[in-house]
């Protein structure tokens, strides 16, 4: 019976390690998750800055095209002044030329503003591209390091699985089935230990007489409350 109790203790210890390692395999480290979140936010800001720069460039091209068209109109109007004989028509044409020139003056200021905006936005885009590249490099390194770590963890996982199978084969079928059932329904903990007069698994107070029976290790005992295997653990052994 003592060997069965020892096997249960070893099996519980291995299953706790097994569960912890499995959780590591199923999830990414916080550092990687944080970097991925930062990268996503930076890429979004970079995309926004690029869109603003693209909009600014389109506006500048539109203004420059309008200026060119206006200059052509001014040139044509100036050619017309040479053939106009009516003073009234001549004055009207001069006024039209002046208004078009004024429009170009405003458009040239807009072009100038676009050039300033483009310079500022280009600096923002460059800075954010460098930040994104930096985070991508860091993330790539973190993932590579973690992948190496995962290989080590997987090997530990295999070793524990092998050891677990050996220990399970050493238990009677009725004990093994109960253990496996408890592992599934009791949050991965099938074995409780007596700690300061309580069950370490559910923290229920254990009657003194029951503690005496547990210390003798005459038979497999169970917690009266959580129904887990309940064992007196002799730290010296």
Word description of this protein:
The protein is mainly alpha-helical. The protein folds into two domains: 28-168, Helix Hairpins (Orthogonal Bundle); 173-231, no CATH class. Helices cover 77% and strands 4% of the residues. It has five helices and three strands; from the N terminus they run H-H-H-H-E-E-H-E. The chain has a three-stranded mixed sheet with strand order 2-1-3. Strand 1 and strand 2 (198-199) form a beta hairpin. Helix 1 (2-26) packs antiparallel against helix 3 (87-169) and helix 2 packs antiparallel against helix 3. The radius of gyration is 40 Å and the shape is rod-shaped.
The shape, in one word, is rod-shaped
Structural domain count: 2
What's the average pLDDT?
Answer: 89
Find the count of extended strands (DSSP E, 2+ residues). Answer: 3
Described by its quaternary structure, the protein is single chain
**Widest sheet: strand ordering:** 2-1-3
* Regions with little confidence, pLDDT below 50 for 5+ residues: none
CATH C-level class of the largest domain is: Mainly Alpha
At the fold tier of CATH, the topology name of the largest domain is Helix Hairpins
Topology as a string of helices (H) and strands (E): HHHHEEHE
Category by helix and strand content: mainly alpha
Strand content: under 5%
Helix content: over 70%
Q: Please name the CATH architecture of the largest domain.
A: Orthogonal Bundle
Radius of gyration: 40 Å
């Amino acid at each position: 019976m003592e060997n069965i109790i020892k096997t249960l203790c070893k099996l519980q210890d291995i299953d706790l390690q097994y569960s912890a390692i499995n959780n590591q395999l199923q999830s990414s480290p916080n550092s990687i998750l944080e970097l991925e979140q930062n990268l996503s936010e930076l890429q979004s800001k970079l995309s926004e800055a690029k869109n603003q720069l693209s909009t600014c460039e389109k506006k500048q091209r539109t203004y420059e095209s309008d200026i060119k068209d206006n200059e052509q109109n001014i040139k044509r109007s100036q050619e017309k002044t040479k053939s106009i004989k009516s003073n009234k028509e001549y004055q009207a044409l001069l006024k039209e030329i002046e208004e078009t020139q004024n429009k170009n003056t405003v458009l040239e200021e807009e072009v100038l503003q676009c050039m300033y905006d483009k310079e500022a936005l280009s600096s923002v885009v460059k800075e954010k591209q460098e930040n994104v590249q930096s985070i991508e490099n860091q993330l790539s390194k973190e993932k590579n390091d973690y992948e190496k770590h995962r290989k080590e963890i997987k090997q530990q996982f295999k070793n524990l699985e092998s050891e677990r199978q050996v220990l399970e084969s050493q238990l009677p079928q009725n004990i093994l089935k109960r253990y496996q059932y408890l592992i599934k329904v009791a949050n991965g903990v099938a074995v409780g230990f007596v700690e300061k007069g309580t069950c370490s698994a559910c923290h229920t107070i254990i009657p003194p007489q029951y503690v005496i029976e547990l210390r003798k290790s005459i038979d497999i005992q169970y917690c009266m409350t959580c129904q887990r295997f309940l064992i007196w653990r002799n730290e010296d052994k």
